[in-house]
Amino acid sequence: MKKNVLIIGAGGVAQVVAHKCAQHNDILGDLHIASRTRAKCDAIIASVHEKGAMKVQGTFEAHAVDAMDTAAVADLIRKTGAQIVINVGSSFVNMTVLAACIETGAAYMDTAIHEDPEKICEAPPWYGNYEWKRRAACKAAGVTAILGVGFDPGVVNAYARLAEDEFLDTIESIDIVDINAGSHGRWFATNFDPEINFREFTGTVYSWQQGAWQSNTMFEVGKEWDLPVVGKQKAYMTGHDEVHSLSARYSQADVRFWMGFGDHYINVFTVLKNLGLLSEQPVKTAEGQEVIPLKVVKAVLPDPASLAPDYEGKTCIGDVIKGTKNGKPAEVFIYNVADHKEAYEEVGSQGISYTAGVPPVAAALLIAKGVWDVGTMVNVEELPPRPFLELLGEMGLPSRVIDPTGADRAI
Amino acid sequence: MKKNVLIIGAGGVAQVVAHKCAQHNDILGDLHIASRTRAKCDAIIASVHEKGAMKVQGTFEAHAVDAMDTAAVADLIRKTGAQIVINVGSSFVNMTVLAACIETGAAYMDTAIHEDPEKICEAPPWYGNYEWKRRAACKAAGVTAILGVGFDPGVVNAYARLAEDEFLDTIESIDIVDINAGSHGRWFATNFDPEINFREFTGTVYSWQQGAWQSNTMFEVGKEWDLPVVGKQKAYMTGHDEVHSLSARYSQADVRFWMGFGDHYINVFTVLKNLGLLSEQPVKTAEGQEVIPLKVVKAVLPDPASLAPDYEGKTCIGDVIKGTKNGKPAEVFIYNVADHKEAYEEVGSQGISYTAGVPPVAAALLIAKGVWDVGTMVNVEELPPRPFLELLGEMGLPSRVIDPTGADRAI
């Protein structure tokens, strides 16, 4: 049983987290949001009040913090009395924020694996490079740390566990498919921080198949999927966080991640990558200025948060899980369909931010209620999925399943 | 009658100019080369000696100079005793180098219109914005200034004049077609300074048609041409320097410039332009660093000079000129075909640099001999073309004509 929430970060996902926390502040208590630039936090709080999102009268305060500074984050946790920290800042700050939680006893959540700004795509399993090294420290301190509790990773991990718990006896493959069939109307934009977005796709594509890590390059393996609502969509095997934890629990199964890309995205990505403009290594201009090309690409692209007002269409993200039931081959597809426009109307963000931002608030509520306050470090598939998925349904992200009989129904 | 040459610039074209000057140093006298970075000049002189290019024993010295500083350039002209300045530095330095020539009495040549780093594609005619404003000053000082005496502009202007002098009674249209059918083997590269290359294509495409300036956008107007040696090639109407002078002398004619582009070039250009990466206006990164995107693109692209060793294939550049002869419609195509590999073997540069760098040396020889030492500012079409074109033929750039009878022969 914990309360009072500190949100780290002030981007598009943080905006959703803030609105959803406000909608449940009767349970969550005081709310705080902190980022390097306080003005961004102020703007998010203003949008919360504009929508009248606070369920009951209460505190929502903005703070400036350097989240790379553990002591500063720990001080802020103590000052605010936050017992729950939702880290939706850049993936570069995971380890410092986690350290501050271990120091103060606050529960920790994030939505992506820690990244080192200097490196791209480290050795699998990625979690083993950073977060999992603090597992014993969390356990010793009794700190609840729920890793990767956005949509993917996060909800899709719970889908795998739901299949294990309720639909299948054995699991032979988990294919996570992420399709954004929406349109933002811009010539080109990324749906979240371009720096993180492109970094996902410039390295090796790791998948877990036949009991071992397999390596491919981006856009090397493509497959058309036929999904509810969004229809036939081409997706490509991509490196992604959840593959690196699901492969531990489901080591006997093939675990792959597939992301939908249109030809236009692939073309722009290919041009930028082949020219060297996605590099995180500095180059020197003729005038002698040292510049990191990827940061310049980020600077010229639209701010992902700015896409929300015009975003239309739907996303479909889910798990195709194959295995056996009663000794016979069986398959389920557990999924969510979200709508960009509905997300914007409710919380002022597009659907990609919405699907990433609602789950950590659901997790915070489960921690507040004691259901998920496990006092150790876990990935989402290690937790009971039903309370989480049912709460998400109430909060705007309903899950459905095409069960082994082929029936498409609410979970 | 003048002698002693100062070359300004140390890029791929300067390399060709240096080799060609060396091959004619019996007439040209002492040779000097200056750029911001003296080491680049040293490297060029070393390559001249490596090829044994100096026709007779003589001086070839390197200097460091800031070509944006008129006084520094004038000092260098006086110190070296140069009576001929070949400016093949960046187009940003034309006006300061020209001022130094007017001050010292040295003859001036360049191969492109002056550009202001802050602006792209100014009002037509472009020459009217800068160079032509100094025409009276050149005349008063008796200074020979030959503007735009590379290949295009330059040789193609002489082709128009040759058609006027020898093939046609009236001229109704001049279409300059520039095809590079060579291959450098890189994924993407520009053939000359990317900053200048892209700036040519990001602004309005000006052409002179029906007695007035017409505006189009880049890649809006395309046409397939069937040319000698290189065959059928798609080219696009492009803004280019020579249109802005030829339209003055041939104001009754349509004057257009066409440049060949493959689909791959167009795709890369379109991606970079639409993302804002070709902008010369600074952007600010998330970290607060001010950066000019175009300079970063330049930094990641291959140095055009580095393409030379692997460059294969041919260029074809010429003028399709239509009009009348003896009252009947008549047409000529006057052109040159150059070979990348031959250029590299002779002077260590690729064909694009070769075709741009040989003409100003031919012009320098004509000034040295008094043939073109006109004591005022001119564009190439104002000078007798035959001595120039014949000399170029001896120097490695032979011209041919498909005459009104359809015969393809040396000019």
TrEMBL record, chains A, B:
Positions of the Saccharopine dehydrogenase NADP binding domain: 5-146
Residue span, Saccharopine dehydrogenase-like C-terminal domain: 150-396
Family annotation (Gene3D superfamilies): Dihydrodipicolinate Reductase, domain 2 (3.30.360.10), NAD(P)-binding Rossmann-like Domain (3.40.50.720)
Superkingdom: Bacteria
UniProt-recorded name of the protein: Saccharopine dehydrogenase family protein
Source species of the chain: Rhodobacter lacus
